[in-house]
Design goal:
The protein has about 270 residues and is an alpha/beta fold. The chain contains 8 helices and 8 strands, in the order ββββαβαβααβαβααα. The N and C termini lie far apart (about 75 Å). About 40% of the residues are buried.
């Protein structure tokens, strides 16, 4: 008699488009948005993000809609470099989190935009706490139409409550912290995307690490499907990501956040 094993079907959710698949395993490719099976997680009652209050050095953010694609390679390289240096960090893939649009309370009146943020319904407030507790942030983004991803834009918009502290003549919580930026894409727009991201952090008093930006593009002459193979095997990308991480950590270790305390005049829009 032939021995058989019964495997129970599960529900899987695509973190990119929200498609629900039922089966023993997730599909190799999402039938709705064409993302790979790496973007699927078993469907469960997701808990709201909570910060445990344990201090750490670097907040590492994957701002892509795809956690396991091209931008994920940059973040994996950055994570590996942080581990080698023995630097404490927390990594988040934004497509796994609930980050709602900014309510734009500031447009009603200046004092309506407060910290903690008025919107306590999603995962952004916990990220706010981690930003104020960490010493540095490393952000990775794909190039979407010569700009950052929409997910990352939503996340950065939600930092307005921190930036608004300066405008309300309150003590800022982010002055002198360090930022590094990693960008990848199919074609043009790398430096523009990086600078669009940096403007947000500059308005919160962050300092861009020397040589704190790395970007790499594959090229419009290639099919986008070949990008991931290029980024996985590109030694220049690996070297430059490692360089950005080293520069962020080195600048962070100068303790500028403490040294510049009460010496900086906030000039914020």
């Amino acid at each position: 008699m032939k021995k058989t094993s019964l495997q129970k079907s599960k529900s899987w959710k695509c973190s990119v488009c929200g498609y629900i698949h039922t089966g023993v395993e997730p599909p190799e490719e999402c039938p709705q948005c064409s993302s790979s099976g790496k973007e699927y997680s078993e469907l469960s009652n997701k808990q709201k993000l909570r910060y445990d209050g344990k201090k750490f050095d670097v907040l590492l953010i994957n701002g892509s809609s795809h956690r396991g694609h091209n931008t994920g390679i940059l973040v994996d390289l950055a994570e590996e470099a942080l581990k080698k240096k023995g630097v404490s960090y927390k990594r988040f893939n934004l497509n796994e989190l609930d980050i709602q649009h900014c309510w734009c309370c500031y447009s009603m009146r200046d004092s309506a935009c407060t910290y903690p943020c008025r919107n306590q319904l999603d995962d952004a407030p916990s990220l706010h706490e981690m930003i104020t507790d960490s010493k540095a942030v490393i952000v990775a983004s794909p190039i979407n139409w010569n700009n950052m991803s929409a997910r990352l834009k939503d996340f950065l918009d939600r930092l307005t409550c921190l930036q608004n502290l300066y405008l309300l003549d309150k003590s800022g919580l982010t002055t002198g912290k360090i930022v590094g930026i990693l960008i990848n894409g199919h074609e043009d727009g790398g430096m523009k995307t990086a600078m669009d991201i940096f403007i947000y952090f500059q308005q919160m008093g962050y300092i861009l690490a020397p040589f704190g930006v790395a970007y790499r593009t594959h090229g419009a002459q290639y099919n986008a499907k070949t990008d991931i193979g290029f980024f996985k095997n590109d030694e220049i990308l690996k070297k430059e990501v490692e360089g950005v991480v080293a520069n962020v950590v080195g600048t962070m270790e100068l303790g500028l956040e403490i040294k510049l305390k009460d010496k900086i005049i906030p000039v914020s829009e």
